[in-house]
Amino acid sequence: MSAAAKKMTYPRDRLLPFEDLKVAAEWLKCAAHPHRLRIIEILLQGEFTVDAIASLSKLSQPATSGHLRLMEAKGLLVSERSGRTVYYSVAEPKLKDILECVCSSIKHKK
Amino acid sequence: MSAAAKKMTYPRDRLLPFEDLKVAAEWLKCAAHPHRLRIIEILLQGEFTVDAIASLSKLSQPATSGHLRLMEAKGLLVSERSGRTVYYSVAEPKLKDILECVCSSIKHKK
DNA sequence: ATTGATATATCATTATTTATATATGTTTTA
DNA sequence: TAAAACATATATAAATAATGATATATCAAT
């Protein structure tokens, strides 16, 4: 550690409004769940129905529906109904970057 | 939605091992807290002592210490003791990208 | 129109985890 | 030994998750 660093007692840059951090934390927390990450991973490859997602993620239908709706409510996903089937897809392209970012850290540590 | 998308019933790419998703989720969840995001934001600007971080983040000393140790345990931060003071700093440079990524989404929605 | 089957959503319960606050303990230095 | 700097413990409260049962809505066939 440098002497200069030790002397630093305040940050140079202005800090973000706490309200922004709360929104960011909610958004991240919504993604920070293994089953939801799996769903995101699946949806980064295209649109799928609830049943297809349930099957691919090996979750029950109610659990899948719950996770999907939570992520839609937070703006991570969007859905489109066509008759009795609902197609979900990724609303926030940054999810791809974040997933890659986090997973590359994991690989690196193995 | 294209007809091709509707027909897709399985993902093209192999999915990640679930264990990896669990680690990724834990890692993300650790960051997904407004107070911890504030601490990360501060530490992205340099090294600080526990007291300095508590003061800057407007948290109590025990709360600050708790968050710091949690993030260190998950590998987000590292600490270095010098006498009776402990300096914390960011261990994972990707935190900067993730914070920027998430916050730019927020700004965009305002 | 009524029936049955399918796709999705909601609800209620229980269990688990997480956050916050206050008090106390430990280590180091003067 | 007294203070300063951190860490830990404990209790309470709050949020989150998992599960199974049930409800709603749509479609297809008669």
Tags for this entry?
homodimer, alpha+beta, 6 helices, 110 residues, Arc Repressor Mutant, subunit A, disordered N terminus, globular, DNA-binding
The helix count of chain A comes to 6
Q: What are the secondary-structure elements of chain A, in order, as H or E?
A: HHHEHHEEH
CA radius of gyration of chain A is: 18 Å
Mass-distribution shape of chain A: globular
Oligomer: homodimer
Strand content of chain A: 5-15%
N- to C-terminal separation of chain A? 28 Å
Give the helix level of chain A as a range of percent: 55-70%
| CATH class (first level) name of chain A | Mainly Alpha
Regions with little confidence, pLDDT below 50 for 5+ residues of chain A: 1-7
Biggest pleated-sheet summary of chain A: 3 strands, antiparallel
**CATH level 3 topology of chain A:** Arc Repressor Mutant, subunit A
- Write down the overall mean pLDDT of chain A: 89
The CATH architecture name of chain A reads Orthogonal Bundle
Output the strand order for the largest sheet of chain A.
1-3-2
Query: Biggest interface, which chains?
Result: A-B, 54 and 54 residues
